[in-house]
Design goal:
Elements (H helix, E strand, L loop, with lengths): L1 E5 L2 E8 L3 E6 L10 H7 L3 E6 L16 H14 L5 E6 L1 H12 L4 E7 L11 H4 L2 H8 L7 H7 L4 H6 L10 H4 L5 E7 L19 E6 L6 H4 L1 H13 L17 E3 L1
Parallel strand pairs: 3-4, 3-5, 5-6, 6-7, 7-8
Antiparallel strand pairs: 1-2, 2-4, 8-9
């Protein structure tokens, strides 16, 4: 277990591997632990970090830190404290929103970002995400198997106020217009069976060439758990792209079980 002190608060993270840094950011249900299969896969060629956001996992629970802006600041301070240069970001749900806002604010720090099941407006989030208990959300979104247990166990341990606070400023979910001006390589991944997040309808004629949207078949809100082997193949292919290449240059592979939009 590793931890760092940021503005007087303890931030927990785990790290394995050697090479260029890749940062994994969890969603509304769970913590760093459900990234373990992806971390192990990425660590073959990269130094893979998984960070617990404020109020989640083993990071400090202090309500004044729970806003989206504070979560973005956590990522910024984390990278500065560890002396990282350019990084790849892998974010899921809440972590994807945090990662995208960070990328928009610090485009020169992010080489590429994979944003998984990310709403691009507040209407793209099922109201249940804002109103239900963490235990009910875990039952709703997670399969009942051993692979999902880390997310289920840590999901119910999170501070519910941290989830609620992330929705306090709906305007911060309106990302469509901001994405149109982004030049970073961005792979947006969605589970076909995700009940929580609606697939965005991005106009391919207006979407920048550096943004690519994939819908994975037969997976839900947690594609990294529902089909970890297929997800990890996609992850490694994305990380292996030469810097500056568009994600649209990824080869089509049946094993991703995805449709291309």
């Amino acid at each position: 277990m590793s931890a760092i002190l940021l503005d007087g608060g303890i931030v927990h993270y785990e790290v394995i591997g050697r090479g260029r840094p890749v940062i994994f950011l969890h969603g509304w249900v769970g913590s760093w632990r459900y990234w373990i299969p992806a971390l192990q896969s990425a660590s073959t060629d990269f130094r893979a970090y998984a960070v617990d956001l404020w109020g989640f996992g083993d990071t400090a629970r202090e309500t004044e830190r729970y806003s989206l802006d504070k979560q973005v600041a956590l990522l910024d301070q984390f990278l500065q404290e560890l002396g990282m240069g350019k990084v790849a970001l892998i974010g899921h749900g809440l972590g994807a929103i945090v990662g995208l806002h960070f990328t928009l604010r610090h485009p020169n720090t992010v080489d590429r970002i994979m944003a998984i099941n990310t709403p691009v407006d507040i209407d793209g989030v099922n109201a249940r995400m804002r109103n239900d208990t963490l235990a009910n959300l875990a039952d709703w979104l997670l399969s009942k198997n051993s692979e999902s247990e880390p997310a289920r166990e840590d999901g119910v341990r999170a501070d519910p106020l941290a989830v609620q606070a992330s929705f306090n400023n709906p305007e911060q979910f309106n990302l469509t217009g901001k994405l149109l001006g982004m030049n970073n390589a961005c792979l947006m991944v969605y589970g076909q069976n995700d009940p929580a997040i609606t697939l965005p309808m991005l106009d391919p004629n207006l979407t920048p060439s550096m943004i690519h949207l994939l819908q994975l078949e037969q997976v839900g809100h947690f594609p990294m758990l529902d089909d970890s082997a297929g997800f990890n193949r996609l992850l490694i292919d994305f990380l292996a792209l030469p810097s500056g290449d568009s994600p649209r240059n990824l080869q089509m592979k049946e094993e991703w079980k995805r449709r291309v939009r």
